[in-house]
Predict the 3D structure of the following.
Amino acid sequence: MKVILLGLPGAGKGTQAERVSGELGIPRVSSGDLFRDHQKRGTELGRLARSYMERGALVPDDVTIGMVMEWIADNASPGGFLLDGFPRTRSQAEALDEALAGEGGLDAAVLIDVSRAELVRRLSGRILCSRCQTPYNRREAPPGEPGKCDRCGGELYQRADDKPEAVEKRIEVYVQDTEPLVAHYREGGKLIRVDGERSVAEVGDALIRALQPVAT
Ligand code: AMP
């Protein structure tokens, strides 16, 4: 099963990707995590990506497509894969369509639908574990001990691009570059829309239910 997750930054793609990938047994990747990993390792790609990410802008298509296609080639299992945060532009969607053309194409594009007001509220409170990337929210889902990950004890931090100016920019970029993909996948009969303004568990249940027919 080959699935992508679409949705505004803060819609809950990362959280839901983890559950779906676990329950359906398919490997997942977040293009944002791949870039953050390159930054941590100090690679040339990491340095390039940082300059775009800090401003909330998209990393250029050619490098992004190359990086994700390499991940697919190395990690996709016969069961498929789940992409979180890719594609985000028309060129990326076309590159993915082309790469999968020989294998029956994508099975589903899931849109986690959340209003802008809700996500500005979520992102401004979001903190992440610097070690295992588990997300928390200062107000709604705080860790047991302030600043420490419940799961691995790692230090929690706020992403530079979750600061208010960068959040505004990321929303603008989404509306301009990524939102048109919703129509692209709807026209291709692949779009599944899930209401993202419910609890994490309810959104996850809805997602798994929606993907069940695709999986079988
Ligand atoms: P995310 O973790 O998905 O919110 O991504 C964080 C940042 O990484 C984005 O704001 C972009 O700067 C960059 N990024 C992630 N995925 C992509 C993509 N598919 N195309 C271009 N830039 C991306």
User: Anything to note?
Assistant: The two ends are 9 Å apart (CA to CA). The longest strand covers residues 108-113. The mean pLDDT is 92. The CA atoms of residues 146 and 156 lie 8 Å apart.
